[in-house]
Design brief:
single chain, about 260 residues, alpha/beta, Nucleotidyltransferase, domain 5
Length: about 260
């Protein structure tokens, strides 16, 4: 094998390892909500996330990954089950759809997006003021657990005036439905709103912010290292907040509009 072919094969292998690590993270996330969801249905549920990240996996390889990592569902014995100790996570109605916003601190929207690196995927949690368009909470890390979303929430709450109680809107991802996240919102008296049917459409502003960071600030590229991606993310959020004019704000800057509420 030539040196060129050797390095090409190594890059391909590394790319596949990164993709498969993400697939396993997504599987584990969904299994926390639906522990006995079968492989075919599971692959269907994960398709939107896989499309967003550009990850492709066939059904056979998907089942191989499940088997290699002991993630196949084991059939239950044929006997009656009288109790169910697994409680469902709380969900809420979409209250944002009925709101007419007139100032900052009236509603925030939250979302989670993926950042690809050659060392593996990172997950960026964002909270944006729905009126000023300022990103008021942001965290990037290498776990799909609720911890990253909680850190973004803590940042948003730390800068929130004590007399303000904005509506918190998100999709129904397990990070936002988990008890710790909901309790954190309720402790601060923030009303909770979630998407109900058309999740991307009902959380369009949060999706739009993700798109701006990826398309205009190139967060959709593959970074060489996680450290490089973290620095690029921090810079992108700062530029978005402090340098980017918004058409919806009559070409004003989010940080300036947000500061008017202080």
């Amino acid at each position: 094998m030539s040196r060129q072919n050797y390095y090409a094969a190594r890059r391909l292998r590394q790319h596949r390892e990164v993709d498969e690590a993400l697939i396993l993270e997504l599987v584990k996330r969904e299994r926390r909500l639906q522990p006995r969801l079968g492989g075919r249905k599971l692959l269907r549920v994960l398709q939107p996330d896989l499309r967003e990240t550009g990850v492709e996996v066939g059904r056979d390889r998907f089942f191989e990954l499940l088997a290699e990592n002991d993630l196949l569902v084991v059939p239950k014995p044929a006997r009656a089950r009288t109790t169910n100790s697994r409680h469902s996570l709380p969900v809420f109605h979409n209250l944002l759809a009925q709101r007419v916003l007139k100032a900052p601190h009236e509603a925030v929207v939250s979302d989670l997006t993926y950042i690809r690196t050659e060392e593996g995927f990172l997950y960026a949690a964002l909270i944006t003021d729905a009126y000023s368009r300022k990103i008021v909470g942001a965290h990037i890390g290498d776990s799909l657990e609720a911890e990253g979303c909680l850190r973004a929430l803590d940042q948003a709450l730390s800068d929130l005036p004590t007399d303000k109680h904005p509506l918190h809107h998100s999709d129904r991802g397990c990070q936002y439905c988990c008890h710790e996240y909901v309790q954190r919102l309720q402790a601060r008296d923030l009303p909770i709103s979630m998407t109900e049917i058309m999740h991307c459409y009902e959380n369009a502003l949060a999706e739009r912010v993700n798109g701006i960071l990826k398309q205009e600030y190139e967060m959709d590229r593959t970074f060489r290292t996680k450290a490089q991606a973290v620095e690029a993310f921090k810079q992108a959020v700062w530029l978005y907040n402090h340098r980017r004019p918004h058409l919806s704000l009559n070409y004003r800057i989010p940080a300036d509009v947000h500061a008017e509420a202080a």
